[in-house]
From TrEMBL:
GO terms for cellular component: plasma membrane. Belongs to the OXA1/ALB3/YidC family. Residues 31-232 form the Membrane insertase YidC/Oxa/ALB C-terminal domain. It is a multi-pass membrane protein. One of its GO terms (biological process) is protein transport. The chain crosses the membrane at residues 20-41, 95-116, 136-159, 195-218. Its main location: membrane. GO terms for molecular function: membrane insertase activity. CDD domains: 5TM_YidC_Alb3. It comes from Candidatus Nomurabacteria bacterium RIFCSPLOWO2_12_FULL_46_14. It is found in: Cell membrane; Membrane. This is Membrane insertase YidC/Oxa/ALB C-terminal domain-containing protein.
Amino acid sequence: MLGNLWDIFLYEPLVNLLAFLVYIIPGGDIGIAIILLTVLVKAALFPLSQRSILGQAKMALLAPELNKIKASGKSKEEQAKDTFELYKKHKANPFSGCLLMLIQIPIIFALYYVFLRGINFDSGILYSFMPVPEKVNMIFLGLVDVSQKSLALAILAGISQYFQAHFMPKPTPPTSGQGTFADSFSKSIHIQMKYFFPFLIAFFAYTLSGAIALYWIANNVFATLQQLYTNKRKHLMLANKYADEQK
């Protein structure tokens, strides 16, 4: 049952959109179609992911005040009350990012699954009104066969993953003391995302196919640009917060 819903609402629409892009792209370059499909899906998810990232940025701005509440020596109940008032004052929701991310995950996995499963437009999966691409060119820009393993694309996938992690919000250090377990865990995750995960992505991208690597590159470049845009918004939020405090 769940498998049918997955195919009907996620997998099949993405395959059909990919087929349409291949059909309209001169020469049927599947590599260009993969990039366009990834960008279109990321653009459709932009409002959700942007709210998630801005929510994380707002929480990062509140981190010093949250640390002050933890270090105040008040009871757990009083700290919880002060924390709630702080969130209410700044209209922050610590769970908004998680909820929005949960909505995006199935769509992102479905997009990944399209390329992982192999690009095949002859399996009867296309809609009746969808034109079948006359030519499917697997040689991206006449240089790389994305149906095969590609060391160059795998390396680029790892590099793009590094830059995406590099521009992600960094964990805010505690104002005093050694910090909590959550602080240490957050710092550890950030380090792994920045230094270990790129090698993992590069390995899987090379092991699977050039199409997977190209998907990761397009995905990471879009996410990095989005993060840079959000960082500017974060600095604006910080400047406004400082201006409010000076009034």
